[in-house]
Each structure stands twice: as C-alpha cells, then as structure tokens.
Design a protein that fits this description.
CATH superfamily of one domain: lambda repressor-like DNA-binding domains
Mean pLDDT: 75
CATH topology of one domain: 434 Repressor (Amino-terminal Domain)
Organism: Demequina lutea
GO molecular function: DNA binding
Pfam families: HTH_3
Strand content: under 5%
Largest sheet: 2 strands, antiparallel
Structural class: mainly alpha
Helix content: 40-55%
Protein name: Transcriptional regulator with XRE-family HTH domain
Order of helices and strands: HHHHHEHE
CATH class of one domain: Mainly Alpha
Number of helices: 6
Strand order of the largest sheet: 1-2
CATH architecture of one domain: Orthogonal Bundle
Length: 114
C-alpha cells in the first residue's frame, strides 16, 4: 500500500474529507508557501483556528473565517439558494413566534398594473 502525503492528495479528495472551504483554504495557503502558524499570525487568529478551518470543523466563527480568507486574497460569497422558505433556529423561532417563512419567488420583482 502506497501512502501519499496529505499535500499530494488530489484537491477533490481533500474537499471530500475536509469540506470544500477547508480544502480551498489549505490549497491557497500552501500555494503561498505559508504555514498554518504564519497564516494565523497574518490573519490575527491562532494557528488552531486555521487548523480547524482546514480540517472542516464547523465551530469556527464567521469573523475568524473571513479574516483568514481575506488574508489569503479570497472572499466569501453568499447566494440565495433554491430553498423556497427561510428557516430559523429553535431559539429564534420560539423567541419571535416564527414558523417557516416563505420567501418571495426568485426573479425580477413584479410591477403593479396602472
């Protein structure tokens, strides 16, 4: 059995193991020749945050994720998905007495008839 160093694994395999965001961050960091510690220092976060992000842990704050991405010259884009409803977490839904809220249909806004 031949073992490959993790850095030589295919990007697709890393993405499957870590999640796409972790694989992208790791690939860009390696492309720039930075260690996790160096990237953390440049981004103003600990190397543990970089390690957690690259390994696919989902408990890293968005603020820290954005700091790492900006340091690497990357940005995060949020797009509206295909889900026809907005979902709220239990605490928020209870606090505001919400159920699933149906989102307006995608596409250009309709214009009122004169």
């Amino acid at each position: 059995m031949v073992l490959q160093r993790q850095s030589r694994q295919s990007a697709a395999r890393r993405a499957a193991e870590r999640g796409a965001l972790g694989a992208i961050v790791a690939a860009r960091r390696q492309e720039l020749g930075l260690s996790q510690t160096e990237l953390g220092d440049l981004a103003g976060v600990s190397y543990r945050i970089v390690h957690h992000l690259e390994s696919g842990r989902s408990d890293t704050s968005l603020k820290r994720v954005v700091a790492v991405l900006e340091t690497l010259g990357l940005h995060l884009t949020i797009e509206r998905g295909a889900a026809p409803e907005v979902r709220a977490g239990c605490d928020i839904a209870t606090q505001f007495n919400l159920e699933a809220v149906t989102a307006p249909p995608a596409g250009p806004p309709s214009q009122a008839a004169p």
